[in-house]
Task: inverse folding
């Protein structure tokens, strides 16, 4: 349960970045599926990838899915915001744990 709570907060964080980059207010999270469809700047299969993070058992694969999604969000955000140090940290973690995808 602790990991699921942490992942929920982290996914909300990366969504906040995406909504900021898209100059949109955060939606009510229950409408997320429909709202992410309206984003012009987003990773491929965003809603599907978020659902996969919470639908699978909470394990290393879940962490890898989250980190890969976060990497993709930070790559997009780096065109608009200074997120270089965050991006380097995520990529280093992915390499260290052999999660590169």
Result:
């Amino acid at each position: 349960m602790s990991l699921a709570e942490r992942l929920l907060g982290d996914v909300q964080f990366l969504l906040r970045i995406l909504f900021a980059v898209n100059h949109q207010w955060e939606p009510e999270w229950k409408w997320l599926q429909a709202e992410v469809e309206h984003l012009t700047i987003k990773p491929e299969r965003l809603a599907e990838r978020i659902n996969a993070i919470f639908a699978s058992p909470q394990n290393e694969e879940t962490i890898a899915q989250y980190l890969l999604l976060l990497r993709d969000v930070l790559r997009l955000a780096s065109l608009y915001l200074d997120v270089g140090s965050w991006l380097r940290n995520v990529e280093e973690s992915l390499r260290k744990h052999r999660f590169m995808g």
Q: What stands out?
A: The longest helix spans residues 2-21.
